[in-house]
Specification:
The structure holds three protein chains of three kinds.
Chain A lengths: L21 E3 L5 E5 L9 E2 L6 E2 L4 E4 L8 E2 L4 E10 L5 E9 L22 H10 L12 H4 L10 E5 L9 H8 L1 H15 L4 E6 L3 H11 L5 E6 L8 H9 L14 E5 H13 L5 E8 L6 E6 L4 H7 L7 E6 L6 E3 L12 E6 H4 L12 H5 L6 H9 L3 H6 L10 H5 L6 H26 L1
Parallel strand pairs in A: 1-14, 9-10, 9-12, 10-11, 13-17
Antiparallel strand pairs in A: 2-8, 3-5, 4-7, 5-6, 7-8, 13-14, 15-16, 15-17
Helix pairs in contact in A: 1-4, 3-5, 4-7, 11-14
Chain B lengths: L2 H26 L6 H9 L13 H11 L11 H12 L9 E5 L12 E3 L5 H7 L15 H5 L5 E4 L4 E4 L9 H5 L5 E5 L8 E2 L7 H7 L9 H5 L5 E4 L2 E4 L9 H5 L5 E2 L1
Antiparallel strand pairs in B: 1-5, 3-4, 6-9, 7-8
Chain C lengths: L4 E3 L11 H23 L1 H25 L10 H11 L7 H14 L14 H12 L1 H4 L2 E2 L11 E2 L2 H7 L7 H6 L11 H13 L6 H20 L12 H14 L3 H8 L10 H21 L6 H18 L11
Antiparallel strand pairs in C: 2-3
Helix pairs in contact in C: 1-2, 1-3, 1-9, 2-3, 2-4, 3-4, 3-5, 4-5, 5-14, 9-12, 10-11, 10-12, 10-13, 13-14
Classes of the chains: A alpha/beta, B alpha+beta, C mainly alpha.
Chain lengths: ~450, ~270, ~325
């Protein structure tokens, strides 16, 4: 069974919602559309207070190359443009739309019929993807069109689809593959045309056998697309790990996937590409999984971007009495939320609710040098060393020890028997070293 | 030959040979240095805290000798006394600098700034700031986990367990600036020491609109501008819903502090 | 009004593993060896183990609470494990005051002075054992004979390794060596009990095969080589076939002394062994070679404790220079 080779853990899967079909969530009264839902510069608003907008209408432009456009998820009136706290707890600019009705722009095709043919050339396809504001929906939020245009001198030879969904609890991608299988395959042919490759591999973990079988059946009619079942192991869905598992090549340290000829896209992003290119529909809604301890009606919901978490939680039966922790995303890499007013963004993959005993951090002890963190690290690093170096502010040594290779997957902290907060210190070490490197490169640029 | 005599002469001879080698090495590999360097280093406190902006006391002494002027050079630990001594060694004039102290621009104790989340991650301010800005409804305020306490090389900061705010000890602080760098929210500022009642500053960094700031913390600066209006010396500037008192133009008349409706101005 | 939510960075789930869990599983693995020691050494075994464990735990509690004034960490079980392993290295007739000194050295000197669990460079039980061996050579080398169930009044005699060294007396048969009805320290006698415990640790993933298997393999290869090269000097059972006599020599070495106890329970101590698999192999090879050197060419009949002690000293160096295989390593 194919898999990545270094490290990894086997957390319990908890995929109870994998059999729950996607339910359309009701529209929120106010849509809170954050302008920084992607990596890169926040988008710049092109509307102002009082403007009437239709669903799918452009409301913010990309700021530069590494940025993305944002479209109105609902129809209504622009209420205000002001800073709103997002999942990080810090405030960022957001456009608030007061919903009225559900009117869409005329050119958006909202029918369910499958549109197979795409007559656009690669450049046109990429332009359409950029205009639709599509970003990596697996959680990172990297603007998709930038990924599809590799730097000078680098060419892609294979498109890899991340349909792994290795995080416990989350099943949104799984349901999408079962319910929109053919649309995803059409989306893949469009992407293959855009980056001019004739080979595409869909990586899926074997705990989703029904999705694997369905896609394998349908892929017969789509030349160049194969399905690769993968071992259930975390983080099988990490970009670098997935590439190694599927094509047996390791992305070099400090390099990009395109260095080994691969471009990776999340399966939800592929579906968004299909909708954008074939139906003229920009990215304004996505599927998220709502589950956890004490949730009465856990499931997968198709929500509009900007819906506050409280709305989605209500559809799942409301907040349990013993709720102690709210997580946006999965339990291994998700962000903790302080309240339910925070809106869904393009990168939100799930909402998890945990009770107190399932999540509160335990007392941490001295490192017993068991080496477990090293054993499980998928990047072959030494987390125990990073924590100590960060505590002593040894930034030079941290850089030499390759802290920037860390993918923040959380395997080390998950496995530590002394319950040390390894990833906490790792993150701050990475942030500081990253800032220092950035400052250094800027200085040397100016020096020239 | 007598064994004792043999032993003594052998060891003695060895010692003599080694002494000659050491003397020769000391002279051959001698690094010629300005003799004043050692004299200057002797006058410095020798703490190597970096408060002067240099890597250590030795580097600071070298800079003093190189520049041969003391305008931009000041050792905050030793203060004016040390700089006068250094100036005396170099034979130049020393510039008297007014003593300074670090102040915390936040009065948001647990009592006035309620927490809206329970933080149970690693106990450092840096990580708490990275985890969430929403631990209280003022995300500029003090996180109370003591990164400043650990950063201070002179043990001049102590965490008050009742208020969860750090307190700076008057006599121990030498304004080296370590706390300024350590605080992830940038709450420390070096201001003129004056007397304990002569330090007037806005103990708030909240840039939210007044209504939001006031709800997050009872002693926040709500940007009402009363202080700016009553100041006859134009020492108070209001920007981004936050007031700031200029240390150089302030005359400590206290009119601003009396006028502040939320008591955000520390005096 | 709902309570405030908890906020901390990901990951938000944990494997549930803890130091206590690991320590108590090690104790469980040592139970078979303890039962055999009760059978073979009777009251002596019980007394020595009880004194050692209670002394180690008490010393740790007293030192942490009253000397260092920190929260005592006796709940993590590491002091109990040290106590048991120390006892397993001692003869069953050791006077109680010597055991107390051993416990004090193990916990007080080898562990707590360096900062407690996780900071000690040398295995506390090994340090204590070597200390006692050098300080009280007579008491530490008068080994009760098997099936002597008294405490201080047990009749003593030579262990298999001592017989080997001095070429006086008869070697016990292989069966006794496997079951454990031979002379020696409490924990080292029964090969089968130790192997059973070792297998348990391997299955439960408390240890990996790298250290124990490599130590045994190194000892086997080294002794086999000696047996093949000079079959007249190095043999356990004489035979015309050079290979067979060498094999008997190797097997004897594997089953005797503290090799199995050391290989599975003491060399594998997390704190004092290297963290990376490649480093563990180097460490284990070193232990194997030094053990055989001391046993065959050295003065002492048993070299395992010294070998582990010496290689513990190399562990920090190994941890610094042997790095794990990185993902996407760019070869310069």
């Amino acid at each position: 069974m194919k898999s990545f080779t270094i490290g990894g853990i086997h957390p319990p899967e908890f995929k109870q919602t994998s059999t729950v079909p996607i339910i359309q969530a009701r529209l929120p009264r106010t849509a809170i559309v954050l302008l920084n839902q992607h990596l890169g510069k926040p988008a710049i608003p092109v509307v102002k207070k009082g403007d009437a907008v239709k669903a799918g209408q452009l409301i913010a432009e990309a700021d530069g190359v590494v940025s993305a456009t944002i479209h109105a998820p609902v129809s209504g009136i622009i209420k205000t443009i002001e800073p709103i706290p997002d999942a990080t707890g810090y405030k960022h600019q957001a456009i608030l739309i007061e919903t009225s009705g559900d009117e869409w722009l005329d050119q958006i095709n909202r029918s369910e019929t499958l549109e197979r043919d795409c007559l656009l050339n690669p450049g046109e396809i990429i332009k359409k993807i950029a205009n639709a504001g599509i970003v990596g929906m697996g959680g990172a939020g990297f603007p998709a069109h930038v990924k599809l245009m590799p730097p000078e001198g680098k060419r892609a030879t294979v498109l890899i689809v991340n349909a792994v969904e290795c995080e416990p609890y989350l099943t949104a991608d799984h349901r999408l593959m079962l319910e929109k299988s053919e649309e995803i395959l059409v989306g893949l042919t469009i992407l293959m045309k855009a980056i001019q490759v004739d080979k595409c591999i869909i990586g899926i973990e074997i705990n989703k056998m029904d999705a694997i079988r369905r896609l394998q059946e349908l892929a017969v009619s789509y030349p160049g697309i194969t399905v690769q079942p993968l071992k259930v192991k975390y983080p099988q869905g990490g970009e670098k790990q997935l590439i190694e598992a599927v094509i047996h090549r390791q992305v070099p340290s400090g390099g990009l996937p395109v260095d080994v000829g691969a471009i990776v896209q999340n399966v939800a992003t592929v579906y968004a590409v299909y909708e954008a290119v074939q139906k003229n529909k920009p990215l304004v809604e996505r599927v998220i999984t709502v589950t956890g301890n004490g949730i009465k009606k856990p499931g997968n919901f198709l929500v509009r971007i900007g819906t506050p978490m409280s709305y989605v939680l209500d559809m799942a039966g409301g907040l349990p009495i013993d709720a102690a922790k709210l997580i946006s995303g999965g339990p291994m890499m998700g962000k903790p939320l302080t309240n339910l007013d925070i809106p869904v963004t393009k990168c939100t993959s799930g909402l998890l609710v945990f009770s107190h005993q399932n999540t509160s951090r335990k007392e941490s002890f001295a490192c017993i040098r068991c080496g477990k963190c090293i054993e499980v690290c998928p990047m072959g690093l030494e987390p125990y060393l990073f924590m100590t170096l960060t505590q002593h502010s040894e930034w030079d040594k941290l850089e030499k020890a390759h802290i920037m290779d860390c993918i923040e997957c959380g395997c080390c902290t998950y496995s530590c028997p002394a319950t040390r907060p390894l990833l906490d210190y790792l993150r701050i070490g990475k942030q500081t070293v990253g800032n220092l490197i950035h400052r250094q490169t800027n200085h040397s640029d100016h020096g020239q | 030959m007598n064994l004792t005599l043999l032993a003594i002469s052998a060891l003695g001879g060895l010692a003599l040979v080694l002494a000659v080698i050491l003397y020769a090495a000391a002279n051959t590999f001698k690094v010629s240095e300005d003799p004043r360097l050692d004299e200057v280093i002797e006058k410095l406190p020798g703490v190597n805290c970096g408060g002067c902006g240099f890597a250590g006391c030795r580097n600071f002494a070298e800079a003093c000798l190189k520049q041969n002027r003391l305008d931009a050079l000041f050792c905050p630990v030793g203060g004016n006394k040390t700089m006068s001594a250094v100036a005396a060694v170099l034979g130049i004039e020393a510039i008297q600098v007014e003593p300074a102290i670090a102040v915390l621009r936040c009065n948001g104790s647990c009592a006035v700034r309620p927490k809206v989340a329970v933080y149970d991650g690693a106990s450092t301010c840096g990580i708490a700031a990275l985890t969430s800005g929403n631990l209280t409804n003022c995300f500029w305020g003090c996180l109370g986990l003591g990164d400043c306490v650990s950063a201070c090389p002179f043990n001049a900061i102590r965490m008050n367990p009742a208020t969860s705010l750090p307190e700076i000890e008057e006599d121990a602080c030498v304004s080296c600036g370590a706390c300024v760098n350590a605080c992830p929210n940038g709450l420390f500022e070096i201001r003129k020491k004056r007397s304990i009642t002569g330090r007037i500053y806005v103990a708030c960094m909240n840039k939210d609109k007044g209504a939001i700031a006031g709800k997050a913390c009872f002693v926040a600066c709500i940007g009402c501008g009363k202080c700016e209006k009553v100041c006859a010396y134009h020492a108070v500037i209001l920007k981004d819903n936050l007031a700031y008192i200029n240390d150089d133009t302030c005359t400590q008349c206290r009119k601003c502090a009396e006028s502040c409706p939320t008591h955000a101005i520390h005096e | 009004m709902v309570n405030n939510f908890y906020v901390s960075l990901a990951p938000h789930i944990h494997s549930g593993d803890s130091i206590e869990r690991k320590m108590y599983q090690v104790l469980l693995a040592l139970v078979p060896a303890f039962l055999v020691s009760l059978y073979v050494f009777g009251w002596g075994a019980l007394t020595v183990t009880a004194i050692s464990v209670s002394a180690c735990v008490s010393f740790e509690y007293l030192i942490q609470k009253y000397l260092f004034r920190i929260k005592p960490t006796i709940n993590d079980g590491s002091a109990i494990v040290t106590g048991v392993l120390l006892a397993f290295n001692l003869p069953s007739n050791l006077p109680f005051w010597i055991i107390l000194i051993g416990a004090l050295v193990a916990i007080g000197i080898a562990k707590q002075t360096f900062g407690g669990l996780g900071n000690n460079p040398f295995n506390p039980a090994i340090v204590a054992r070597v200390f006692l061996l050098i300080s009280f050579p007579v008491q530490m080398t008068s080994w009760p004979l098997p099936m002597q169930h008294g405490y201080v009044d047990a009749v003593t005699g030579a262990t298999p390794l001592a017989v080997f060294k001095s070429h006086l007396g008869n070697l016990p048969d292989t069966c006794s060596m496997i079951i454990g009805t031979i002379g020696g320290s409490l924990g080292e006698v029964s090969a089968i009990a130790l192997l059973a415990g070792g297998l348990f640790l391997l299955i439960r993933h408390i240890i990996t095969w790298h250290i124990p298997v490599t130590i045994l393999a190194t000892v086997f290869l080294f002794t086999f080589l000696l047996g093949v090269v000079s079959p007249d000097t190095y043999y356990a059972v004489k035979s015309d076939n050079r290979l067979l006599s060498a094999l008997s020599y190797s097997l004897f070495h594997l089953l005797s002394g503290g090799l199995l106890l050391g290989a599975f329970y003491m060399a594998t101590d997390y704190v004092t062994s290297p963290m990376i698999k490649k480093g563990q192999l180097i460490y284990a090879i070193g232990i194997g070679i030094i053990t055989v050197l001391i046993r065959v060419f050295g003065v002492y009949p048993e070299g395992m404790s010294f070998a582990i002690f010496i290689m513990n000293g190399f562990t920090p160096l190994i941890n610094v220079y042997i790095k794990p295989k990185r993902f996407g390593e760019v070869r310069q």
